[in-house]
Specification:
The protein contains 14 helices and eleven strands. The protein has helices at 7-12, 29-37, 51-64, 80-90, 106-111, 123-132, 153-163, 177-185, 195-198, 207-214, 238-248, 253-260, 263-268, 293-311; strands at residues 18-20, 42-45, 69-74, 94-98, 115-120, 137-140, 146-147, 168-171, 190-193, 221-224, 232-235. The radius of gyration is 18 Å and the shape is globular.
Length: 316
């Protein structure tokens, strides 16, 4: 297995162009450290967590690896401003952002030497982020798990790659070397992967959650919340069926929100895959087993290299 050098690997100081998604309740120090140790970029998912929890996770990750890792900040979080300051104080290598515009924190982060990579779902936002001075963008298509945009990865990545000069990371629908190779053919210089790392050995996710993903078929993911303007992709269960029924009947935003309140924690921590929110991407049907993060990354790289060699495009 050879190294694949891209602007992203050089920018972040990582061996392989593979970034782990900053998934709420899932992406904590054990997973982040394992991915980074395996040569990718691990991320701690700050989500709605208090700022001091994030600081503690950063320090725990540093105890487990001396490789680069980052923090994903959800900018709609009530703790976002405090977390933004803590990552600067802790001088993490990378910050990825979602659910908002990180512009007001850029000066502080840049002064701390942090590489800033927002997740975007449109060319307009990608261009705006480039003008603000970010280092790269994650172009995330609607095949991904959790909160999603409208465009598919296949359509989004090449349009964003054409729209900006900074490096693009492809996300959404990447589960093996074929998906990774496709992202590079579309103009990406790295991939971000979430669902496959959820079922890694190092993931703290409840075994019920992992097994639900492993047993998923290609048609088992569903999108709820389109009527509210906050679409979310999860694995079908009793809650999604009730949610879609209520949406069809014109239920209020408050009623729908109440149905899923605390749902992700219920699935991840308690293992309730019937009523919890089992967030996963459309590639869940490709996943058939638990592996270590090292095994996942090695397999991804081996498969990608084989495909590139077959096409005569591999560069050592």
């Amino acid at each position: 297995m050879k190294n694949m050098k891209t602007r992203i690997t050089e920018l972040l100081g990582i061996e392989y162009p593979i970034i782990q998604g900053g998934m709420a309740w899932v992406a904590e120090h054990n997973l982040a450290a394992a991915v980074s140790e395996a040569g990718g970029l691990g991320l701690i998912g700050a989500a709605n967590a208090p700022a001091e929890w994030v600081r503690d996770e950063i320090r725990k990750t540093r105890e487990m690896t001396d490789k680069p890792f980052g923090v994903n900040i959800m900018l709609l979080s009530p703790h976002a401003e405090e977390v933004a300051k803590i990552v600067a104080e802790e001088k993490v290598k990378v910050v990825t952002t979602g659910a908002g515009n990180p512009e007001k924190y850029l000066e502080m982060w840049k002064a701390a030497g942090i590489k800033v990579i927002p997740v975007v779902a449109s060319t307009a936002l990608a261009r705006r982020m480039e003008r603000c001075g970010v280092d790269a963008v994650v172009a995330e298509g609607c095949e991904s798990g959790g909160h999603i945009g409208e465009l598919t990865t296949m359509a989004l990545v090449p349009q964003i790659a054409d729209a900006v000069e900074i490096p693009v990371i492809g996300a959404g629908g990447v589960g093996d070397g074929r998906g990774m190779a496709a992202m590079f053919m579309l103009g990406a210089e790295a991939v971000q992967i979430g669902t496959r790392f959820v079922v890694s050995n190092e993931s703290i996710v409840h075994e019920n959650y992992k097994q639900r993903i492993i047993s998923a078929k290609d048609i088992d993911s569903v999108v709820t919340g389109r009527s509210t303007g906050h679409p979310v992709r999860t694995i079908r269960n009793k809650t999604t069926r009730e949610y879609l029924k209520l949406e069809k009947e014109g239920a209020s935003f408050e009623e729908l929100e109440h149905l899923t309140l605390g749902g992700l924690r219920k699935a991840v921590v308690e293992g309730d895959v019937a009523y919890g929110s089992v967030m996963a991407g459309q590639i869940a049907g490709l996943i058939s087993k638990e592996q270590s993060c090292k095994e996942i990354i090695e397999e991804l790289m081996t498969e990608t290299e084989a495909l590139f060699r077959r096409c005569g495009t591999w560069v050592n």
